[in-house]
Amino acid sequence: MKKKSLRIVFMGTPVFSVPVLEGLIENYQVVGVVTQPDKAVGRKHEIKFSPVKEIAIRHQIPVFQPEKIKKEYQEIINLKPDLIVTCAYGQMIPNELLKYPKYHSINVHASLLPKLRGGSPIHKAIIHNYLRTGITIMYMVEKMDAGDILAQKETVIKQEDTAGTLHDRLSLMGKELLLSTIPDLVQGKITPVPQNEEEVTYAWNIQREEEKIDFTKRTIDIYNQIRGLNPFPGAYATLDKKIVKIYSSRISESFFTTKKDGEIGKIYEDGIGVSTKDGEIIITELQFEGKKRMKVREFFHGFDGEKLLGKIFNEE
Fold first, then answer.
1. 256 pLDDT band (50/70/90 cuts)?
2. Which residues contact 78 (CB under 8 A, 6 or more apart)?
3. Superfamily of domain 208-308
4. Phi then psi for 138, rounded to 5 degrees?
5. Is the pLDDT of residue 42 over 90?
6. Order of all β-strands in the sheet with 105-109
7. Of the candidates 51, 13, 56, the residue with the CA atom closest to the CA atom of residue 31
8. Arch. (CATH architecture) of 3-199
9. Domain assignments of the chain as residue spans, ordered by start
10. Contact at 8 Å (CB) between 222 and 213?
11. Which pTM does this prediction carry?
């Protein structure tokens, strides 16, 4: 089967999915795009299209946005796809649809399965101090990220990586791995590998309580939490009972103790030193409630940092 004759339905929603969709459009016949329903955002409740929908419209590809795909999938079957490709779609897909295409349905997932099944594998890989992660292409089944593996590619998680930088790298890796996998899949050259259920870990969607920094934890754990939530949704703490978003930090080379974990004990030229369980975390980028996001160095241009000494984050 020639590349352009392969009929593909793509299912995805966020920015992460965009390079994958663009790669498919360049190489195959994408006959339909399925994405989550439009959302009203902001104070004016303006309707916002998903990044995937915007790409589909640009290329004049039919878009389907079922509220509940388990009940609304006949239009997709009517497109007679040879293959369904999903990437961060956001709904559980019924087996009747998954098994319809000649080559079934495959998914692009941002982890080395069976590690980090779920909706936030990029965030959790950094937060939980994984040394490496990657992309998995696998068959779709009616169980979250549990299908047989078709291909994998890994990348090292650098100490300076954030969820943002890792997101962008994995997004491009997903496109490249998918495009190299589809021809082998169609030609029957791949032997699917079942996942080892004993090695499964999960990356559930980030909850609000996971965003709050606990300064009684180790410095490395706080550092990983901050970078693992940067740029979205952002880690936070409270100071003078107001929310402070914390986007960047570094680990102090010195050790000092203060009266309480979370206490601001030292002011640096470019950061705010805060006591932790085993040392000090230096906050270098933040956003005070009602203010813009800024580097601490920039914040100190109009504020005497010494006034923060002795203040305690998360003090009731």
1. low
2. none
3. Formyl transferase, C-terminal domain (3.10.25.10)
4. -145, 160
5. no
6. 63-64, 29-34, 7-12, 83-87, 105-109, 132-139, 149-156
7. 56
8. 3-Layer(aba) Sandwich (3.40)
9. 3-199, 208-308
10. yes
11. 0.95
